[in-house]
Amino acid sequence: xxxxxxxxxxxxxxxAVGSELLTPFKSxxxxxxxxxxxxxxxxxxxxxxxxxxxxxxxxxxxxxALGGVDLVLLSxxxxxTDDDLTRETVAALLDRPLREAPTLVAALEERFAARGWRMxxxxxxxxxxxxxxxxxxxxRGTAPGLWLEEDGRVVLLLPGPPRELEPMFDNVVRQRLxxxxxxxxxxxxxxxxxxxxxxxxxxxxxxxxxxxxQSEPAVETTILASPGLVELHLSVWSSLASxxxxxxxxxxxxxxxxxxxxxxxxDGRSLAEVVGQCLSDAGLRVGLAESCTGGLATxxxxxxxxxxxxxxxxxxxxxxxxxxxxxxxxxxxLAEHGAVSEPVAAAMAEGARRAMKADVGLGVxxxxxxxxxxxxxxxxxxxxxxxxxxDEVSTRLYRWPGDRAMIRRxxxxxxxxxxxxxxxxxx
Length: 427
Prior knowledge:
Layout: E1 10-17, H1 30-40, E2 43-51, H2 55-66, E3 71-75, H3 86-93, E4 98-100, H4 102-114, E5 128-130, E6 134-136, E7 145-150, E8 153-158, H5 162-178, E9 185-193, H6 198-212, E10 220-226, E11 229-238, H7 241-259, E12 263-265, H8 271-282, E13 286-290, H9 296-302, E14 311-316, H10 320-327, H11 331-337, H12 342-355, E15 360-366, E16 381-387, E17 393-399, H13 404-423
Parallel strand pairs: 1-2, 1-3, 3-8, 13-14, 13-15
Antiparallel strand pairs: 4-5, 6-7, 7-8, 9-11, 9-12, 10-11, 15-16, 16-17
Helix pairs in contact: 1-5, 2-3, 6-7, 8-13
């Protein structure tokens, strides 16, 4: 049985409304924002769904949600056109007659007049309020939000545009919900792992977090994998911040010991952030020479504020001519080993370090495809090298499956990962 709002643990469902969200051209980003906001308040999201502009389907979705959760949030479908049916559908389901609010009509007319426009007649629909609903002001748009209560549950109608929904939630809804929920909150920790695949990470960590699931408070765990990176998400629901923190600290420490230096971060920092911190802490500057990645590794470093402390410069050395002229790669080396080879990657790294007067050089060369591969060097072959600090040079050769975009992403993460290992003395 679901717990009512205000009586402890609170559950929610998010319904995104709009046929455009069921096409490849529009994504539902509102549910991500709302989930984060609700979790911060101690509200667990049990389900998310997307429904088109069909009153029957929408009615069924809301009715089902009301049978299982305490709080139903709908985003979208509050506009002035015929396909904006959220308000009408919810009002009919809850048997709440719609009535036009003169104050809302006046506010809409004033809004249009301020821009020198006449208000279209169909905008009057946005001034219709279900009986018993509370109107939530929307200073950024014409569609007000609506707060309805039904048998101890809350149904919340929010506008679809994020620039309207987000401030309405932060400035109005959050305060209302805080007054109704208990003190139970969700506390999270994100651990990022490089250098191991998902199955290898799971093999090491599964016995550990199986035990933590039995703790009090319990630690819920999720493992997420993307090319070159594995994330462990640890979550604790607790009424005491100190209790949640102690449990998360202990679980993190045990997982850290098991993962060793393959553990990239325990605070959600990205690979580029960690690499930048390593360089900055050591007082080192890096120069990059990228071929198949086309500047992706450099771009990730540049995304971090303050990168000028440790990023000397970079060059996209795609052609052999550029490799020779700008990086000093020997023509004989290219002829003997080919552009996609560990010796050439090492020469590119040395060349970048020398040309940019850096302490460390990073070289990347490969075949991203879909063409250009051979029997010896098929598409997905990538060679990496890190030169420095000092005389140390590390190289790696990889062969990855996937399309061009995936191979470039994998190469970028592996390159920054190799740079990190070198800086930690494990190249």
